Amino acid sequence: MKLYDYAQAPNPRRVRIFIAEKGLDIPVEEVDLGTRAQLNPEFLAINPSAAVPALETDDGDILSESTAICHYLEGLHPEPNLLGTTPLERAQIMMWDRRIELEAMGAVAEAFRNSNPGFVNRSLTGTTNYDQLPDLVDRGQARATESFEWINTRLGESEYIAGDRFTIADITAFVLCGFARWIKQGPTDAHENTHRWLAAVSARPSAEA
Amino acid sequence: MKLYDYAQAPNPRRVRIFIAEKGLDIPVEEVDLGTRAQLNPEFLAINPSAAVPALETDDGDILSESTAICHYLEGLHPEPNLLGTTPLERAQIMMWDRRIELEAMGAVAEAFRNSNPGFVNRSLTGTTNYDQLPDLVDRGQARATESFEWINTRLGESEYIAGDRFTIADITAFVLCGFARWIKQGPTDAHENTHRWLAAVSARPSAEA
Fold this sequence. Notes:
Strand content of chain A: 5-15%
Largest sheet of chain A: 4 strands, mixed
Number of strands of chain A: 4
Largest interface: A-B, 40 and 40 residues
Oligomer: homodimer
CATH class of the largest domain in chain A: Mainly Alpha
Number of domains of chain A: 2
Order of helices and strands of chain A: EHEHEEHHHHH
CATH topology of the largest domain in chain A: Glutathione S-transferase Yfyf (Class Pi), Chain A, domain 2
Radius of gyration of chain A: 17 Å
Strand order of the largest sheet of chain A: 2-1-3-4
Structural class of chain A: alpha+beta
Helix content of chain A: 40-55%
C-alpha cells in the first residue's frame, strides 16, 4: 500500500492522522503541490482529479477522496473504530464529518485559495485553472467565523464532535483548526468548549501525523 | 420515520430515489423552500443547518446530509445493496459518489444559485444570507461543462458510474442530470456513453421518485 501525500495540505493530513489512530504503517510518496507536481502526466495517470491524498492498494487499485480512503482502511482494520458501529452512530458521525468538511473546511479553503499568492489561477483543485475571486475571500472568512461559532456550540452539547468519543469527525475538525491559521482564523478566546476539546485532541499521539 | 422533503430540490430527490430502490415507504413532510420555510424557528429546531432532506428516525433522532441518511437506511435495510459490500467496493462507490456530488452537482448549484432570481441573497444554504456573485455563474457553468465531459469518459470505461452495477453514485448522477437542466446543461449529443447509461437509469421505477 502507498499513500500519495503532501505534508502541508489539510486533506492528506486527515488521512495520516486516521492511519496513526489505526496504528498502521503505510509508506508515503510526496507529491510536491508547491511545484504543481499533481498536474504532471505521471500523477494524472494515478489520480485524474489531480489531488492528494490518493491511496494505492496492495492490488494496485487507486482510491482518492480522503473520506473514501478512510472508509477503506476501516473496512480492513476495524479497530479502533472511528466511523461508528450501529447504523445510527455511523450516520451521525458521517453527518458531523461532512458538516465540518464541507462547511467549515470549505470556508477556509475558499478564503485561502482565493487570496494566497501561491494559488493565483489555482483557486480550485483539479486540472483546470480558475482565477482567484476576491469576493470569495470575504465570503470564506465570514463562513469560517460562523463555523467556529457552531462548532463551539456543538462542543458545548457533546464531548467530541459526533458524540461521546473520538471519531473521524474530530480528526477533520482538528485539521480544520490548523488549516484555519493560514487565514488567521480559529477558535476565539471565548470558544471555551472548543479549547477544552482541542486540548484533548492535541494530546493524542496522532496529532503529530 | 419521516423525511423532511422538498419536491423540486435535488438533494431530497437523491434520498427519495434511494428509498424507492430499497422498496421502503417513509412518510414525507414538505418544507416549502419557496417560502423559505427552512428558516422558520420550528424547522431550525429540527435541522439547524436549515436544509432538506432531514430524516426523523423512529426514536426521534434527526439526521441531515443526504449521504448520511442513505447510509443509515442501508444499515437498517441492507438489500438491495447500493453502497458496496467489500471495503474496496464501498470506497470506490463513495469516491465516485463524492466526485459527482462535490464537483458536478456543486458546479451546477454554483451557477444556479448565483443566477436564479429566486435566490437573491440566498446563494448558499444555511441561516446566513450571502449575496449572489456573478463571477460564480460563469465558473459554475464552466465546471458543469467539464463535469459532463469526465462523466461521459467514465461511462465509457464502466457500465455504471462506480462499476458494473447500479449504486448510489448513479442516483446522484441521475439527479445531477435533472438539476443541470435548470442551468441549461446536461450531456451533449456527443456524450453517447452518458445517454446509454441515462436510458437505463431513467427506465428504473425509482426514477419517478
